[in-house]
Write a structure and sequence with these properties.
It is a single chain. This protein is an alpha+beta fold and about 800 residues long. It has four domains: about 210 residues, Arfaptin homology (AH) domain/BAR domain (Substrate Binding Domain Of Dnak, Chain:A, Domain 2, Up-down Bundle); about 110 residues, PH-domain like; about 110 residues, Arf GTPase activating protein (Annexin V, domain 1, Orthogonal Bundle), CATH 1.10.220.150; about 250 residues, Serine Threonine Protein Phosphatase 5, Tetratricopeptide repeat (Alpha Horseshoe), CATH 1.25.40. It contains 23 helices and twelve strands. β1 and β2 form a beta hairpin.
Length: about 800
């Protein structure tokens, strides 16, 4: 390290030392001014950045408002929403960058100026003072007369003391100068390097964000080119149509009216008529009338609910009215009331009268056809008793998440406001939402509602089946059970946002409309769920072969139902001692032909010897002393009843409730016992702890491994289950799978372990990003997806 001022030189107090000191002091003063200027510029940059972020937030809000206004155009709405989310993320990255600039530049350099430069200035003051005292002592010593011995001795003593003090002060001053010169380099470089790393992180985050957005942008770019072409074509067509219509003669347009019983939406006739009010003044008002669904209705505005004039046209008659002062009037008379109307011309009056008469005849004809079909169905019902009733709905294949979810009862409209054709969903509640309600749900936080797009996001099969297991009708039956009792109005499409937001918070956050069961009702519900769980357990156990004794070290090959030999699982387990890669090569694949030949066998590698008796005993129901919502959730999870689980959570059941009377098991462990992957997914979506252990130290992954539920093992591994956790017997899930000779679960656990090791070897944390093109990663994901799909397909 280069020393700015030599310590030996300062003791001489030579002109060279004084010149060096003067140069250093000037340099420090200039450094202080430059640092002060840099800090002020940094403060100005941060203030400008905050103002930019504020303006950018307003701009993004404008994009969101435009997206909400474009709800009828799915492409515009979804694209603008996605762009607004990405720009919001960039604003957050900018905020982090400015915060880092404030910490690295402003705070660090200000601290350096206030502390280190202040010490230097204080040392300089002491040095200047002692230098003046030394000069005065030297002058006094030189002026002392020779014949006055006491003055000579006094001057000599003062000079000696002053020199000693000067040496002490000047050494401290030189030390402070050298330390300052050394520290200035590290402080300046450290602050600037931190600031530049903050920029590097900012641009990396922005690049990653827009790399994910790039496929959507390319797709929209291709659609945009086609939209430009279509817009030009539509413009030409509309101009041609405009020109054609403009040339027509509209002087007698009444003759062009036609009565069409097959019109869209069942509308037979529609148009404006004057209606005479039933009040005392008999005022006439112009309203829009229509004949549809065998009813005569009218409305003032398009958004108004139609007012029904005649409920059933079969019960009414229509006639001319010539005894009123106005022209072109006719009257529709029903058993309870009559309605006087006026058309704009005689031809229009005749058209309306004819339309009403034809609708009356059509209503009678359709009614007769319905009665004939009912009679025919009743006459042939005895011959179709063995037909199995209504045909079972076949599973939908190749359809989008939107199409599958909207087929559930009630899902065709928004769960909270009734807006038709929703495009968003809350995956932990199992409901569909419109774009406005989805934004309100998102603002509640993920602990209340997790929002996902039905068109933009990808949907895992287990999540899609969870959505199909609940639906708006079921969830509203829980969260709106007391709404009519409390006379609470449900929002409608077009209501102010604040009204809808207040209703949603009252519904899901405050749970104001949930009906709380009595103790007796809750006890009855818990007993019913426990019985249902026991029936499911006994039904599943009836189909299992008797469990053999624990397997010996040497396993025998087994054969399947078709007589073909099934490869024993000991090969995969034996080779695993030499390394994970050899085990993967020797373990049977889930798609091997030997696994899929017999129709009744599940399409996965089966162990040659069945596992020993499971340490996970069957839950035995006991008459509870105190029933609670947590106990209901516990038994509902075992009974695979999603509606009862949702009801228990709505009643305030903790999702990680512990049954102290049953080895401290949780609802998630009971869901594993029930064998349903969808119930596990529901609990995990509602923040269930995937690593919570029971009294034996076993987490859900242990129980799924013991029971051989491969799909649940995949699900827990996807959700971050700790496969290295050991129970009270020091057994991990992998050791349990090896002991049970379950080749599929051994393969999955070892793949997961290898995946983690490769992540660490490549420098990626388990929670970080990992190259998706890695062969191990691709094989791991493929295996998990196959096993989850297999378990979902089973009853």
């Amino acid at each position: 390290m280069k020393i700015a001022v030599e310590f030996e030189e300062c003791l001489k107090d030579s002109p060279r030392f004084r010149a060096t000191i003067e140069e250093v002091e000037g340099d420090v003063c200039e450094l202080e001014s430059k640092l002060d200027k840099l800090v002020k510029l940094c403060i100005g940059m941060i203030d400008a950045g905050k103002a930019y972020n504020t303006a950018n937030k307003l701009f993004v809000n404008g994009i969101r408002e435009l997206a909400q206004q474009s709800t009828k155009d799915e492409v515009i709405e979804s694209s603008l929403t996605k762009f607004a989310e990405s720009l919001t993320e960039m604003i957050n990255y900018h905020t982090i960058l400015f915060d880092q600039a404030q910490r690295s530049i402003k705070t660090q350099l200000q601290t350096f100026v206030k502390e280190d430069l202040r010490k230097f200035k204080e040392s300089k003051k002491h040095f200047d003072k002692v230098s003046e005292e030394k000069e005065a002592a030297l002058a006094r010593n030189a002026q002392a007369p020779r014949n006055k011995q006491h003055e000579v001795e006094e001057a000599t003593n003062i000079l000696t003391a002053t020199r000693k003090c000067f040496r002490h002060i000047v050494l401290d001053y030189v030390l402070q100068i050298n330390v300052l010169q050394s520290k200035r380099r590290s402080e300046i470089l450290k602050s600037m390097l931190t600031f530049m790393y903050a920029h590097l992180t900012f641009f990396h985050q922005g690049y990653d964000l827009f790399s994910e957005l790039q496929p959507l942008m390319k797709q929209l770019g291709g659609q945009l080119d086609q939209l430009v072409v279509d817009a030009a074509k539509d413009k030409r067509d509309m101009e041609q149509k405009h020109s054609t219509i403009q040339q027509k003669d509209f002087s007698n347009d009444d003759t062009k009216l036609e009565y069409n019983v097959d019109a869209e939406k069942g509308i037979a006739m529609e148009g404006y008529l004057f209606k005479r009010a039933s009040n005392a003044f008999k005022t006439w008002n112009r309203r829009w009338f229509s004949i549809q669904n065998n009813q005569l209705v009218y409305q003032k505005k398009f958004k108004d609910n139609p007012t029904v004039v005649v409920e059933d046209l079969r019960l009414c008659t229509v006639k001319h009215c010539e005894d009123v002062e106005r022209r072109f009037c006719f009257e529709v008379v029903s058993p309870t009331k009559s309605c006087m109307m006026q058309a704009d011309s005689e031809k229009l009056r005749q058209a309306w009268i004819k339309a009403v008469q034809n609708s009356i005849a059509t209503a009678f004809r359709e009614r007769g056809d319905e009665e004939e079909k009912l009679d025919r169905r009743a006459s042939t019902s005895t011959g179709s008793l063995d037909s199995g009733g209504e045909p079972k709905e076949k599973p939908l294949k190749g359809e989008s998440a939107l199409q599958k979810v909207l087929t559930i009862p009630g899902n065709s409209c928004c769960c909270d406001c009734g807006q038709p054709d929703p495009r968003w969903a809350s995956i932990n509640l199992g409901i569909t939402l419109c774009i406005q309600c989805s934004g309100i749900h998102r603002s509640l936080g993920v602990h209340f509602s997790k929002v996902r797009s039905l068109t933009l996001d990808t949907w895992e099969p287990e999540l899609l089946k969870l959505m199909c297991g609940l639906g708006n009708q079921v969830v509203n039956g829980i969260f709106e059970a007391r709404r009519e009792e409390l006379v609470a109005r449900k929002p409608q499409p077009g209501d102010p946002r604040q009204d809808i937001e207040a209703y949603i918070k009252a519904k899901y956050v405050e749970r104001r409309f949930v009906r709380r069961p009595s103790d007796e009702e809750l006890r009855t519900k818990v007993v019913s769920l426990s019985k249902q769980e026991k029936r499911l357990s006994s039904s599943s156990n009836d189909h299992l072969p008797p469990r053999p004794p624990p397997p010996t070290p040497k396993l025998r090959p087994a054969s399947n139902a078709s007589g073909k030999s099934v490869r024993s699982a000991d090969s995969g387990i034996q080779n695993s001692a030499d390394g994970s890669r050899e085990m993967l090569a020797d373990t049977p694949s889930a798609n091997s032909p030997a696994d899929t030949d017999p129709p009744e066998a599940p399409p996965m590698a089966m162990p040659a010897v069945l596992p020993p008796a499971s340490p996970c005993r069957e839950p035995v129901f006991y008459e509870p002393k105190d029933c609670s919502a947590g106990l209901q959730l516990y038994w509902a999870a075992g009974a695979r009843s999603l509606p009862d689980m949702a009801e228990a959570l709505a009643h305030g059941a903790p999702v990680n409730w512990v049954n102290a009377e049953d080895q401290k098991r949780t609802p998630l462990i009971m869901a594993v016992q029930g064998g349903s992957l969808v119930t596990c997914e529901f609990l995990l979506q509602n923040a269930a702890n995937v690593n919570q252990q029971d009294a034996q130290g076993r987490a859900p992954l242990h129980h799924a491994t013991i029971l051989g539920h491969t799909g649940q093992v995949c699900l827990f591994l996807k959700r971050g289950a700790n496969q290295n956790a050991a129970d009270m017997e020091e057994k991990t899930p992998l050791s349990m799978a090896v002991e049970a000779a379950n080749a599929d679960i051994v393969t999955l656990l070892r793949l997961a372990k290898m995946n983690e090791e490769m992540r660490e070897a490549e420098g990626y944390s388990p929670a970080g990003q990992y190259p998706s093109h890695s062969p191990t990663e691709m094989q791991y994901r493929k295996c998990m997806q196959e096993f989850i799909s297999l378990q979902l397909d089973r009853p």
